[in-house]
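Subject: design request, 427 residues
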């Protein structure tokens, strides 16, 4: 058996045995290195070089900023603002769920974090208003997936580090796709609630909406500061992450006053643990990707893709199918390290923009967060609502279809992603 064959066989067996993805990638990579008689000094060299990048410093800072703003009560304030604005409509709470997820996505940068922070409030409220518990949980899980599409996003940081493209431009390119996916989910909600007996809320006054906006404005300013600072040339994406972390601490401690020294210590520890998990995945996935590249697998698969996909449209269809399936089993960071070295060269050869391709990959992997058997958002939502995975998997189908429609639009009309960074003339 070839080294590449052994690599993928061991990886598949470990995944089947439910071994954590990072360990599966790392163990299979080490076994392949031993089989290829690769000097083991390459192990620490590759691991260190993969995580010792300035751009990846953005990850712990964005994680810290998201955790601080979550503990500062920004989720409740965002929900209250959206509820005052549109909660009186027929599908009001469902729309609130999607809109709030889009706003919180611009703070947390994580799908599961968005579901966890908002779900504990929105899911019980939707059930109380007459929504089915499975539908409420499924919508929250799918809307939470927008967390890795709307910037700042850890997935964009990782893609930028792998592909060597501008992270700032990728951030800006992700705004419209996230809004488009949110719009598709709102349309799906409006269609689905027609058959439900929903308890509608009273319309809030202009004064109440304004009061809710003033309460939430400090949280809404975070993405403005991040993207405005990057676009204005005041700081790099990594520096923007550090600024957002400091801003989050200032807002949480001195403005909202819901974060004290004890809370801050717990937030720092939690952020360190979450960042360490991501960096372990990065280290193991990059080692796996290095073996795939050095053994010629990446070049072989890339050449094969070029042979069977004689057009850009067919290639993009194949990519979407592969990534949607991959997203059912592995997390976004691991998938990016595995597939970017294989797929990006083909995309470039076929004339597809690398920024737009990163958005397409991220949207695919975001949808993977709500598709079984390893849809992490589904498990978080199930834990909150206590519905079964079987029930939520059925109810999530209309929302997955709506998400795929928005994915296809972004895939085949890349200008939807690129017009904003191009308009800003970002480099």
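Subject: RE: design request

Done. Sequence follows.
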């Amino acid at each position: 058996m070839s080294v590449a064959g052994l690599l993928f066989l061991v990886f598949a067996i470990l995944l089947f045995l439910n071994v954590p993805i990072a360990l599966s990638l790392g163990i299979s990579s080490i076994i392949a290195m031993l089989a290829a008689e690769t000097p083991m000094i390459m192990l620490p060299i590759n691991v260190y070089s993969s995580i010792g990048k300035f751009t990846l410093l953005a990850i712990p800072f964005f994680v810290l900023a998201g955790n601080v703003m979550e503990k500062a009560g920004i989720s409740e304030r965002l929900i209250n603002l959206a509820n005052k604005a549109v909660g009186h409509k027929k599908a009001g709470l469902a729309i609130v769920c999607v809109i709030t997820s889009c706003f919180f996505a611009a703070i947390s940068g994580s799908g599961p974090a968005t579901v966890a922070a908002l779900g504990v409030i929105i899911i019980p409220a939707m059930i109380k208003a007459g929504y089915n518990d499975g539908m409420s949980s499924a919508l929250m899980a799918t809307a939470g997936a927008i967390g890795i599409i709307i910037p700042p996003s850890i997935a964009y940081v990782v893609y930028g580090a792998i592909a060597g493209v501008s992270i700032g431009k990728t951030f800006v390119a992700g705004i419209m796709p996230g809004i488009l996916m949110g719009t598709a989910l709102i349309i799906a909600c409006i269609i689905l609630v027609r058959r439900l007996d929903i308890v509608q809320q009273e319309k809030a006054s202009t004064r109440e909406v304004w009061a809710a906006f003033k309460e939430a404005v400090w949280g809404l300013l975070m993405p403005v500061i991040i993207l405005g600072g990057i676009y204005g040339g005041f700081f790099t994406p990594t520096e923007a992450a550090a600024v957002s972390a400091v801003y989050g601490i200032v807002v949480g401690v001195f403005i909202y006053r819901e974060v004290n020294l004890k809370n801050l210590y717990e937030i720092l520890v939690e952020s360190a643990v979450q960042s360490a998990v991501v960096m372990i995945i990065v280290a193991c996935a990059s080692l796996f990707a290095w073996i795939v590249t050095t053994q010629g697998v990446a070049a072989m698969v890339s050449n094969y893709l070029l042979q069977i996909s004689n057009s850009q449209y067919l290639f993009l269809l194949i990519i979407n199918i592969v990534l949607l399936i991959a997203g059912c089993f592995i997390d976004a960071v691991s998938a990016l390290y595995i597939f970017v070295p294989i797929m990006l060269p083909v995309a470039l050869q076929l004339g597809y923009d690398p920024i737009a391709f990163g958005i397409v990959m991220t949207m695919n992997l975001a949808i993977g967060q709500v598709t079984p058997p390893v849809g992490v958002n589904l498990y978080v939502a199930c834990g909150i609502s206590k519905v079964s995975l079987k029930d939520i998997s059925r109810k999530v189908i209309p929302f997955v279809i709506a998400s795929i429609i928005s994915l296809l639009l972004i895939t085949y009309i890349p200008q939807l992603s690129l017009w904003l960074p191009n308009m800003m003339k970002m480099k």
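The chain has a mean pLDDT of 86.
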